[in-house]
Design brief:
two-stranded antiparallel ribbon; Helix Hairpins; 2 domains; elongated; binds zinc ion; 2 strands; mainly alpha; 197 residues
Length: 197
């Protein structure tokens, strides 16, 4: 017996769906549910299957109530883990935030963008640490300290209900910080010697 589900749902297939496949790469389902492409282009839509529109909306909602600073920190923290980073620059205002959010949603829907070239010029032994702290190269000791404080606070187990994953993240962040701080401090010392000579 086939249950005809006529009860109201949070998501109903859009009668105006273009009749194509879900926009999520390699998804074999029909794209019957629409989702705005970004906050700045609310009239342009992706077409997803039910599972993917839910995931997309969840990702969207996740950033909804955050301040630009929080979003930026979050994008940077996240991008250092599963995804390559891309240059976001400083988020000066809402258009920068929209851009960052758009990049994040785009990455979610269509996969990561190419790795930012800014880390490619970094000394090879520092690239991983830079990527962990989501920093571009060149970088100052102050930049490193500031980012470290930000991330250490964010991933502190006390701030994450003792979450084991936050603890693991924090360990890697600590290690990256130690690597960069050590290298930059010794560079500074060398520069000071040169100046003293
Ligand atoms: Zn899908």
């Amino acid at each position: 017996m086939i249950a005809s589900s006529r009860k109201p749902r949070a998501f109903a297939p859009d009668p105006n769906a273009p009749g194509r496949f879900c926009d999520m790469p390699n998804c074999p389902n029909q794209g019957e549910f629409r989702a705005p492409k970004s906050r700045s282009t609310l009239r342009e839509f992706h077409w997803f299957c039910l599972d993917h529109v839910r995931a997309y909306n969840a990702s969207w909602d996740f950033y909804k109530d955050m301040s630009p600073e929080e979003i930026e920190a979050n994008l940077r923290a996240d991008s250092s883990w599963q995804r390559p980073t891309w240059p976001l620059g400083r988020l000066g205002g809402h258009s920068r935030m929209d851009e960052a959010l758009e990049a994040e949603l785009h990455a979610f829907a269509f996969g990561p963008r190419p790795k930012a070239p800014s880390q490619a010029s970094a000394p090879p032994e520092l690239r991983e640490a830079l990527s962990t702290l989501a920093l571009d190269w060149p970088v100052t000791l102050d930049d490193v300290k500031t980012r470290y404080k930000e991330l250490a606070k964010r991933h502190h187990p006390d701030a994450n209900h003792g979450d084991k994953r936050s603890e693991e993240r924090l360990k890697v962040i600590n290690l990256a910080y130690a690597t960069l701080r050590g290298k930059l401090a010794s560079n500074l010392a060398r520069t000071a010697e040169t100046v003293a000579d």
